Amino acid sequence: MAPVQVKKICCIGAGYVGGPTCAVIALKCPHIQVTIVDLNKARVDAWNSPDFAVPIYEPGLVDVVKQCRGRNLFFSTDVDKAILEADLIFVSVNTPTKKSGVGAGFAADLNYVESATRRIAAVATSSKIVVEKSTVPCRTAESMRTILEANSRPGTRFDILSNPEFLAEGTAIADLFKPDRVLIGSLQTTEGKEACRALADVYANWVPQERILTVGLWSSELSKLAANAMLAQRISSINALSAICEATGANIDEVSHAVGFDSRIGPKFLRASVGFGGSCFQKDILNLVYLSESLHLPQVAAYWRQVVEMNEYQKSRFSKTVVDTLFNTITGKHIAVLGFAFKADTGDTRESAAISLIRDFLSERAFVTIYDPQVSEEQIWQDLSEACPTTPLETIKKQVTIVHSALEACTQKEAIIIATEWKEFLEIDWQTVYANMNRFQGEGHWAWRARVKTVLRHSLSSDIDLNFNIGH
Ligand SMILES: NC(=O)c1ccc[n+]([C@@H]2O[C@H](COP(=O)([O-])OP(=O)(O)OC[C@H]3O[C@@H](n4cnc5c(N)ncnc54)[C@H](O)[C@@H]3O)[C@@H](O)[C@H]2O)c1
């Protein structure tokens, strides 16, 4: 039988999910020893750094790590030792979209999940509860079980649970402290339900019982994809309406406010923007599209695919607006891009809309100056190199400059794009920016304001006050 009392937890994968999730488990369950392991030594070293320079930026995370690291929270590259000792193992490795082979561009790459699972089977000498934390296609737990059962030692039993993570980057710690729900899926066998109860008991240390939902394995796996698809769909819906607003003179902020007042709809995720980014929404919807196609449901696949296509359209529409506003050419012009992360309060740049915009500006041969409070220069160069695979980095560097303040970025520019809704951009002194921007000959304040407002409209526009007194 699987152990009923969880005393030692191993988490494979010390990334954006594994790190914060298991750090919070360690904080809330001082009686459980939690070891987070990763093959990436640099990442583990950062988690262990004496000055708590943890590898991901997440408000509140350092405080949690400070309280438990060395007490009941450990970070290590010794994957085998942590597997051997644990009663319960979270698999929290990356599941990116496949880049080649069958399902390329849509299906999730399960290579990392499979190697972590094989490692568990090869190393474990006692029974374990294995928990899928990564976002995976429906029925992945079945493949994991096949691998574990085919490769395990006699007398060793594995119970597989699905426990998808619903945290949002930027608010991960608050989300983990007070989750809307914790979802646990298990086989509906006696052993499956026992394992489910053991994990539910861990969460019950701080999550109210009514928020811990227990369901079947496949429902749990599919619920994660479903939640992300429906959130992304709201963003694509409001963005589709923003295009209609711009063509008709209606105001998208007013429309979204009015629509969000409907108690059946609600205001969340109804903010028009330059499009969604991040490592999950696009990947998970494409995963759902692939699943639908594999199940011979082409209409369902087309329905969800359109959510992603709308997002791509919104990004390219925004780039075009910038070009149109700058008199139909941006060649040789200077553009400031404020924000590079895919959203505020994270340093994560995966699928960030800023990358697509900058790629478009570079292809129009504009000069771009970037400022982001959290993203490293190294990361920006890596992302731009990947986005422009046929352009050598040296050529990109001739067109792109990275600076260390918003005001510096805005100096002597013809346009300013706010690509990430960092709070500090609300406090920019627009009067100073205005005084230091490049203006076209004869252009007055109102023309300038219209130009800047156009490019701002998609992000923080309604919060930013450009009505300063220019004094002439
Ligand atoms: N980032 C989010 O906001 C978020 C939210 C909910 C769910 N998820 C899902 O959680 C999963 C993890 O996402 P993430 O953002 O933390 O990814 P990540 O890339 O930040 O972290 C994954 C880590 O796993 C490590 N790893 C891969 N294979 C390994 C192995 N065999 N042994 C040990 N370590 C290994 C990698 O080195 C990496 O550090 C994904 O499936 C993702 O879809 C992510």
UniProtKB/TrEMBL annotation:
The superkingdom listed in its UniProt entry is Eukaryota
Tell me the enzyme class.
Answer: oxidoreductase
This enzyme catalyses: UDP-alpha-D-glucose + 2 NAD(+) + H2O = UDP-alpha-D-glucuronate + 2 NADH + 3 H(+)
Look up the coiled coil feature and give its residue ranges.
Answer: none
Assigned EC number: 1.1.1.22
Residues of the UDP-glucose/GDP-mannose dehydrogenase C-terminal domain: 336-442
Pathway named in the protein's UniProt entry: Nucleotide-sugar biosynthesis; UDP-alpha-D-glucuronate biosynthesis; UDP-alpha-D-glucuronate from UDP-alpha-D-glucose: step 1/1
Matches recorded under Pfam families: UDPG_MGDP_dh, UDPG_MGDP_dh_C, UDPG_MGDP_dh_N
Q: Which UniProt keywords apply?
A: NAD, Oxidoreductase
SMART domains, alphabetized: UDPG_MGDP_dh_C
Q: Mind telling me which InterPro entries this protein's record contains?
A: 6-PGluconate_DH-like_C_sf (IPR008927), NAD(P)-bd_dom_sf (IPR036291), UDP-Glc/GDP-Man (IPR017476), UDP-Glc/GDP-Man_DH_C (IPR014027), UDP-Glc/GDP-Man_DH_C_sf (IPR036220), UDP-Glc/GDP-Man_DH_dimer (IPR014026), UDP-Glc/GDP-Man_DH_N (IPR001732), UDPglc_DH_euk (IPR028356)
Identify its protein family: Belongs to the UDP-glucose/GDP-mannose dehydrogenase family.
Identify the PANTHER family for this entry.
UDP-GLUCOSE 6-DEHYDROGENASE, UDP-GLUCOSE DEHYDROGENASE/UDP-MANNAC DEHYDROGENASE
Name of the protein this chain belongs to = UDP-glucose 6-dehydrogenase
According to its UniProt entry, this protein's organism is: Somion occarium
